[in-house]
Protein 1
Amino acid sequence: MPIQREKIIEARLLDAIRKDPHAVEIKNSTSDARTIADLLCGCVPTVFHDHSDWNPYPKFMLDLIGNMTPDIAFRSKLSSENRIYIEVKDSQPLGHKHYGIEDSQVVRYFLHLMAMSKRIPKKGVTDIRRAMLLCAPSAWFKVERNAKAWAYFLEHFSGLAKSFDITLGELHAESL
């Protein structure tokens, strides 16, 4: 049942982004990006919704990614790079099956995003900005286990994200 609710959140999120990316607010953003539109910079991405085609190099970084698939990935049509990963949660914790806080889905996707994309993919061309976002109901972020895992990620990776111009942030499901 939790997976079904996550799929509903994913569909609502994608519908909201298609309808008006300016209305999809990023909470607790680590950059000046306040909406999805701020990240898209007027570009229209190729969207991979829970689909293995998101990873153009599936045999690279196997220890880090293996057979994992982010819930939503946005790829730039200009640079052909994945630029935004969105993990969606309803009630499930960040640690995926046997993964812990240190190697949660958001940690793994963030490292993959950083390694597989460039800050400025094509000089002089405006492209989609990079981001690792977590979409969940506001209440999810208040559950102790979830809050601890998310805080760990932000504490340990915000500095790195800022140095490489990658936005970290939250999308609250009830505002979609």
Protein 2
Amino acid sequence: MKIEFIKASDLERNVKCTIHKNGKLGFTEAAIKKLNLETNRFIKIGTNEEDKNDTNLYMVIQSEGDEYSFKANKAGNYFYINTKALFDKLEIDYRKHSIIYDIVECKNDEGNLYYKLIKREKDRKSK
């Protein structure tokens, strides 16, 4: 038997985003790198209209904004988007629960790139 070891350094880590208590969606350093986020980027976020039980979100990064997109904002080395109104509309309780989305790269039938945000949720710890 010959074992092929996988280099841990080649694996993507922490490609995720988190909803903060103020409703902003913040991205990890690995996500910023993977998504190639810059201050001149815009992000569209949507839901699965065919399956209302799908709690994941779907995201597209683009270089130009439109009526559906959020502008990527930068604070230091950190990127976020102002999504409070979106999460309030979707009735996602980010104040009571810690909401984290793992980001997975996907392609649609036409070969266009998008990202699936896979939801994880846990109760926030009281301070």
Protein 3
Amino acid sequence: MKYLVVKGWLGFGDRLETLIMCVKFAMDHNLTIHVDWTDSIWSHSGETFYTYFDLINIPSIKSIDDIPADASVYPPFWKDNLKQPFTEDLISKGQSVILTDFLTEKNNYTEDVVVYSCIGRRTMFPDSKFFANVFRVIDQRILLNINDRIRNNNLRQSIGVHIRGTDRVRSYRNRELSIQHLAVSAVMNGSLSGKPMIAVGDDSESLSIWKRFYPDIKVLSKLSMENTNKKGNHNASKEELAVSKDEMNVDLLIDFFTLSVCERIMTTYRDSRFAREARHLHPYVQRILGNE
């Protein structure tokens, strides 16, 4: 095997978890990696992974055209479909399309190309330093806004609150209880003792509940709050968005790295991969942003 192609799907946290595992696998097996985030969740007008990011210090290609046409591929479905973005319909095809096993150093595929999709299971790593050494934000819109937020909001000493809701809301009562518990936890972490606190998120209704407890919290999210969609902002179609997917992606990524810079990170939903990956990358976020 010579190449690893990473197909995107789901939200940014899921993508990032998958990418971290795939980068580790590519490093362990000396593979050339290509990240294909041209699916409809991430891309409405040609946006890709490489619009916002780059991979350095690791063999990588930015175009599937650089993979030889006669290369053998696993799973075999992708043999003549390497350029096809991942879709909802492909999920039903199961293992003929989707690798569901964890990628570990023990895997020994003989094909020239292995395609891994964000639907598969993922290995979690206690330390993401290896990933921070290869993953870089390159979009100047993101970098300029993050550095501006760092200068003006004391992020490095702040509690960052991730107001997650939309498609995660199963019960309004449970949502209110979750936010109440988080508000108590914020007190335990110093929110009433002068500790600065900022909020980012995608759910204006949940933010309204949070403001019952902290009416003066500084909310840094803009487009995500203005375009709250109950099925999840990332799942909104082109027609449902008042702005472009590119603008939404930039807004989301500014919020993600804002959260990553914060000293402490809290979220309204414990299983939020967005918040979890922000915590994992926190020790190395300045490297990822090119500030060290």
